[in-house]
Amino acid sequence: MSNEDEVLNERRERGIAVYAETFGVGASEVQGLFADRVGSLFAEEAVLAAGGPAWNDPSLDERSRSIVILTALICEGVRGNRLTTHLERAVRAGVDQPALEVLTVLLALYVGQARTALAAEEMRLFFTGRHENS
């Protein structure tokens, strides 16, 4: 195996680990689950991207990375399972409900209330569901 192949395999393994954590599944389940959602070609590219520096550089801790990702998703109007998947990941990284409420208020000041209000509503439902299930 060439050095280039080794680097690619390491990147793929790191990417699979990121998506396993994001989806809350085992590493062996990632490729099939992700390919079912978006197709195998897109899934492979996303896994390789996740294996790169954006998800693995120690300059950002997991909590900060989760806040950045949620900010991007909220600003893009992402809702539903794609948002809650990252809410789950953020909670596992130590982001709590008060921090997320402040995040939506801050984003409302900078990007407007239309999308942030939808996200705030979805976050409340997310945490209400977590409290009811505990």
List keywords for this structure.
mainly alpha, 134 residues, 8 helices, single chain
The number of helices is: 8
Derived from helix and strand composition plus strand pairing, the structural class reads mainly alpha
Radius of gyration: 16 Å
How would you describe the shape? elongated
Total strands: the figure is 0
The unreliable regions are none
What share of the residues lie within helices? over 70%
Mean pLDDT across all amino acids: 93
Residue fraction in strands? under 5%
What gap, in angstroms, lies between the N and C termini? 49 Å
What do you see in this structure?
With 134 residues, the protein is mostly helical. The chain is 81% helix and 0% strand. Helix 5 (62-75) runs antiparallel to helix 6 (81-92). It is elongated and about 50 Å long. The mean pLDDT is 93.
List the helices and strands and how they pair.
Blueprint lengths: L2 H21 L3 H12 L1 H11 L2 H4 L5 H14 L5 H12 L4 H15 L1 H20 L2
Helix pairs in contact: 1-2, 1-3, 2-3, 5-6, 5-7, 7-8
